[in-house]
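Quick question, first post here. What does this chain look like in 3D?
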Amino acid sequence: MSNLSDLIALSLLPIWLWRLISERLRSGESPGLVFDRLLVERWADEPEKGASIRARAAAAIARGAALGLTPIAWSDAAYPPALATIVDPPPVLWMRGVAAALDRPAVAIVGSRAGSPYALAVAERLAADLCARGVVVVSGLARGVDSAAHRGALSANGGSTIAVLGSGVDVIYPAEHQALAREIVATGAIVSEFVPGTPPNPAFFPQRNRIISGLSRSVVVIEAGEKSGSLITARCALEQGRDVLAVPGNVLSGRNRGAHALLRDGAKIVESADDILEELGPWPGARPSGQSDPNGAIGASKGQADPVLACLPLGEPCDLDAISERSGLAPARLLPRLFDLEMQGLVARAGGGRFVRIDRPC
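> Answer (accepted):
Ran it through. Tokens below.
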């Protein structure tokens, strides 16, 4: 519990320190030591600050436990490995819903809060088609395209979706989406980096966009204006090595100039779910059209013949950067292969977004 408490305390420090926090945690420093050192380095003239933050962390744990919320620490094997690879991952991810939703390949669908009927219909259709093929849809529970994407995902048989909030997971915003949130947690998850009870704040929404992209392998932008928050998500995706795709729209209205600018800059055009799935490539549990067997897509290469597995020393946890350097594969391409090996029982997750090879016959 002390490790969790220390990580929550770190999450209560300013966001501009999180990259430094991540670097120190990855170097092997304990969360408590990182926290204490930062207090000395940054707030030496505020001796009461540490006790105040630790009291807030304890209150967050108590509130989360009372509400049945799940805090997933950065050091926990359940922490989404894709998110652990970004430069400033949240020290703790709070969750409501089904944890298994965080383990599956995900695609983010984002766009205008004032989406046109065309944009809403496209978001709903793409999300439903992706979920029917075994993909989890990630979005931000906002009005417009986000909520249409969540609803489309839920309409698919066995569909699952993840909503990332700019508030605590127990504070649904906008309030009109309370019923939608209840549907989401039945098969998917609501997540946030903010401690329970945190109210929505305009500054939090651009901050949470890096989590939307960080959880996803691709980001699809639908109807974004020149100053749309969706473009922040697209920029985060590019910085994280994720694919960015965009849906073309009406050139006369001006409400899709941001997405069209992405297309001019090289984003792939999306006309159907197949365009997105082509970028993802195969993964364990994929359900191609006409195939109902969820185990049919597991890759065939195993054991010593697998080049990624050969980069993992037996029993020694390695982070994604080390495996990427040894294998020559970019992290965005490496993660699907590691998930494949995990499904085969050849690789297991360790804390902090690391993977370890298991001594098991092929």
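The longest strand covers residues 92-97.
Confidence is low (pLDDT under 50) at residues 290-305.
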